[in-house]
Structures are given as structure tokens and as C-alpha cells.
Known about the structure:
With about 240 residues, the chain is α+β, with helices and mostly antiparallel strands. Helices cover about 25% and strands about 30% of the residues. The chain has an 8-stranded mixed β-sheet with strand order 8-9-10-11-12-7-13-14. A 4-stranded antiparallel β-sheet has the order 1-4-6-5, covered by helices on one side. A hairpin with a 7-residue loop joins strand 2 (about 10) and strand 3 (about 20). The termini are far apart.
Amino acid sequence: MQFGVTKESPCHYLTAQDERLVVALPNELECLNPSAYQQLMQYGFRRSHNDVYRPHCRICSACQSLRVVVPEFRFSKNQKRIIKKNNDLELKIKEAPEVEYSELFSKFIEERHPDGEMYPPDPDKFWSWVSCDWLKPELLEWRDANNELIMVSVVDRTADAMSAVYTFFHPQQEKRSPGTYAILEMIRLAQQRQVSRLYLGYQIDDCKKMNYKVRFAPYERLVGNHWKKELKSHTLKAQNKY
């Protein structure tokens, strides 16, 4: 498989930094499938629609791929409390988005991320972004006892891995710690499926929007071309509610 390098553009996560990506060339996309993608994830690649990429910045290496070591993960007391707090929610796995999903996504972006790159919300563009022609993403939905939609997560699944793509939830349900609960549920699902790793995307310690990821130890970071295991959860100064 051949790859190309994009031109530099302003970084979405760190001010005064430029980003550059290495991506699979368009005429090589027919080589992509879930098995190939699992191998590429081991080298720090992520997916956006049909495109597979990883950071390849000229002077910055802050982005580090992070993955949970699923077989070794044990729920902490605080995580068990979050799970108990959400015992009234029922998880279902869907193959296609429902109308309610777009409504919840729009509400989430409008109230939680009015200064983000997805504002104003465009559900059609979002579903195109998370869809894929060579891999079928899973849609995890959680509803309460009244059948109200509380949260949706988009997840990629391969033979021995899962990858969290995006999660959105009802903005007024923050007391549930919905983002944390979604990851705990993904870990539980990964353990049931006996897959070895749950990929959470890129970790940037200086970016507060990403710092929730280091609370799910043991995890591994891709430092250079080597995965470095960290056994304890960390609390970073720039941590954001999730």
C-alpha cells in the first residue's frame, strides 16, 4: 500500500501549530478492509469516512495514539459507581442511524460545542464522515426506562480490536458522566467479544478536550513506533469534564 503526505494546515487542537497527515492514496483505497485497517491502527492510523490517516507533523509529535488493554482492564470503584448510576439505561446496537440520532447530535453540538469545528451542526455531513464503504461501523444507542434516547456512540469493529469514532449525548444528562460511561460500556463489550484493544484515538496532553482518555488504564501510547504501556490512570491539569 502506498501513502502520501498532505500540505500543512492550522492544527485543530494546539494553537500556533500546523498539522500534516500521511494518508492512503485514493487509488489504493481498494486495498482497505477491516483486516488491513486493524494492522494500520497498530501503527497509529485512524479513519475518516473512507480515508485512513495518521499525524505526520514536521516539528510536533504531541499526538499519540492511545488504546486500552482490554484483557487487563479492571473497573475502579469510581467507574463502578458511574456504571451503577446508569443502570436504568439499555444498550442496543444498530446498523443505521435513526431520525432521533440526528436530532440528538444537533442538540449536543449546539449546547456543548458552539465553538467547535462541527458548529453549526450538519447531521448529513456527520453521518457521511463516520460512514465507510469498506467497513460497517456499529451504532451503540442507550435509552432510559421511558425509551428516551440518552446517548449514541459510533464504533468501528475489526477481528481483534474496537475503535471509538465519536460519542454524543443529551446535554442535560451530564450528571450521568455519559462520556465516561460510554467508554466503560465499550470496554465491557470488548471484553465480552474477547478483543484485545480498544482504540480511543489520539491523546494530546496539552489539549484539555482529550485528557479524559488517560483515565482508562492500563493503556498503551504509541510513542515513536513503539507502544508504551501505562498501568495507572492519570489526572492531567488541563482535564475537561466528560
